[in-house]
Design brief:
By secondary structure, the chain is α+β, with helices and mostly antiparallel strands. The chain has helices at residues 14-17, 19-26, 96-103, 113-116, 120-128, 163-171, 176-180, 205-210, 235-240, 274-288, 330-359, 369-395, 401-416, 438-450, 456-464, 485-489; strands at 2-6, 9-12, 34-35, 45-47, 59-61, 66-67, 73-74, 76-81, 85-92, 134-144, 147-151, 160-161, 183-201, 215-218, 223-226, 242-250, 265-269, 302-310, 328-329, 421-424, 467-471, 479-484. It folds into three domains: 2-36 and 326-429, no CATH class; 45-321, no CATH class; 438-489, no CATH class. Mean pLDDT is 83; it is low at 1-5 and 15-40. Residues 1-24 form the signal peptide.
């Protein structure tokens, strides 16, 4: 169902959005059409950003991705395993998922909607990620020290149940998954991260291709080069390119970073980019030098991740807590994937609309400003509709609960027009500009130099002024005058 509510916004029937999922749920539930997340894994790795206060030995439900607030297995905690390692990573065109992963110590977040939307992490990711209209350059430094490991009290006997575990195993066999989950935490990985990102945003995708092509970024060395051709850009065009450098440190002594980048963020434009470029370089040098010497004890690190072990992969005593695993349908997993993906896309569109309203407001035709405001609201509402459904699907993995929940939202939308996904015209996120063709002015400058009409140093001085040559009718007669690039362009064929 498509119902028009405005020239650039439409209500969408959910069946048309997720037709693949609808087909999946109607097929026969043969074993090949079913997959159990739990049955395929002997353990889980859970991001520390979801909850960094979990005790070792804590029960965990791998189907709903939830920790339970008790420790059903007895054991000892050891910190004698592992050693401190430092690693550095460089990424160009860093995506939303990659930034979240970097902020969380490179733990895969793709299957966990709670990890995809995690307060500050998601906020930073949507502001720093590459898009059709922006480039993203990221440097990350990570330190991984000793980890806490759960060991049996008696190595010869292996793990045994705690008093809480005994009660659940003896009295609640019918509620094992609910009360004890299916795994328990057997190690806690600690670490520290330094995240340095330079985000370059443009008026539109064409500017990203054309202007961005003249920016050379050596992330490893923290060096940014602006090619001379961009001298031909007018001041307004340079002002339209927004540069943001941010650095975030987790663990160690984050206050030291503030001596380089106050408030952890600095913004510039291409008209005067050097402060941003300098701080980008200084932050990377800080990561390679000062940062790595800030760690003397485990308390200097943050929780990066938890690793678990399944009850049915442990001792005979612990296996008494192992639940009978239920299968999770392909339809549920496919729907969860699609909802999560659409949530992130809507979130990025909402961020772009917000950037336009805060940064490029004067570039938008007055008649379209209210449309961009509405697009931001619509994208935000869509994102949280997708998030709500994805979160439900994650915590209700069995049977048809997930698909039925989404179908119920669809039914309400169709009958009342409330709670619907609303489409919008994404072209509003691309602010048009006239073709600049600075490369033609550069070719003309080179032609004049190569012909001997002007020396290279003098022609470069003209370029700094944004002047390009206007040739005589007969090119062999030389240069008529030097004039601003936009005027010289009118004389070129």
């Amino acid at each position: 169902m498509n119902r028009k509510i405005g020239s650039r916004f439409m209500l969408i029937g959910f069946a048309t959005v997720f037709s693949l999922t609808a087909a999946a749920v109607n097929q026969d539930k043969t074993p090949s059409a079913l997959q159990s997340q739990s049955l395929d894994n002997f353990s889980s790795t859970i991001p520390g950003l979801v909850n960094d206060h979990v005790l070792i030995g804590t029960a965990y439900n791998s189907s709903t991705h939830e920790f339970l607030n008790h420790q059903p297995v007895k054991g000892l905690v050891s910190e004698q395993y592992g050693g401190v390692q430092f690693d550095f990573r460089y990424d160009t065109d860093t995506s939303y998922d990659e930034i979240l992963s970097a902020l969380n110590g490179s733990v895969d977040l793709s299957v966990n909607i709670s990890a995809v939307q995690v307060n500050a992490g998601a906020h930073i990711a949507k502001e720093s990620a590459e898009s059709e209209y922006a480039s993203s350059y990221t440097f990350t430094a990570g330190a991984t020290p000793k980890k806490k490991v759960f060991l049996p009290i008696d190595a010869n006997l292996g793990f045994s149940l705690s008093p809480v575990g005994e009660i659940i195993a003896n009295d609640y066999q019918g509620r094992l998954m609910e009360l004890a989950g299916d795994e328990f935490v057997t190690s806690i990985e600690y670490g520290a991260q330094l995240f340095v990102n330079m985000h370059v945003e443009y008026l539109n995708s064409q500017d990203k291709r054309e202007i961005g092509g003249y920016l050379g970024v050596d992330i490893a060395g923290g060096i940014v080069n602006v090619q001379g051709e961009l001298d031909f850009l007018d001041d307004q065009s340079k002002e339209s390119v927004k540069i943001t450098v941010r650095a975030i440190q987790k663990g160690g002594e984050p206050t030291r970073l503030l001596t380089i980048i106050p408030n952890n963020i600095v913004t510039c434009s291409l008209s005067y980019p050097q402060p941003c470029f300098d701080l980008f370089s200084q932050a990377i040098q800080y990561a390679k030098n000062d940062f790595r010497y800030q760690f003397n004890q485990l308390s200097d690190y943050n929780v990066v991740s938890y690793k678990t072990t399944r009850y049915d992969r442990s001792t005979a005593d612990v296996k008494r807590l192992a639940p009978a695993y239920q299968t999770i349908s392909f339809a549920r997993n496919q729907l969860l994937f699609e909802l999560t993906d659409r949530y992130k896309k809507a979130l990025m569109d909402e961020q772009r609309a917000a950037d336009i309203l805060s940064t490029y407001y004067s570039w938008i035709p007055e008649s379209e400003r209210s449309d961009v405001v509405q697009l931001r609201t619509v994208a935000y509402n869509n994102a949280w509709l997708f998030f709500d459904a994805a979160e439900y699907c994650q915590t209700h993995p069995y049977g048809n609960l997930c698909v039925d929940y989404w179908n119920n939202i669809d039914s309400i939308c169709r009958s009342t027009g409330e709670g619907c996904v609303i489409s919008y015209d994404r072209s509003m996120l691309d602010i048009p500009t006239t073709a600049r063709k600075v490369e033609q002015c550069e070719r003309a400058r080179q032609q004049a130099t190569n012909a001997g009409f002007v020396t290279e140093p003098l022609s470069l001085a003209y370029r700094k002024l944004r002047w390009a040559p206007v040739f005589m009718t007969d090119l062999s007669d030389g240069i008529f005058e030097w004039t601003p690039c936009e005027f010289a362009l009118t004389t070129y064929e």
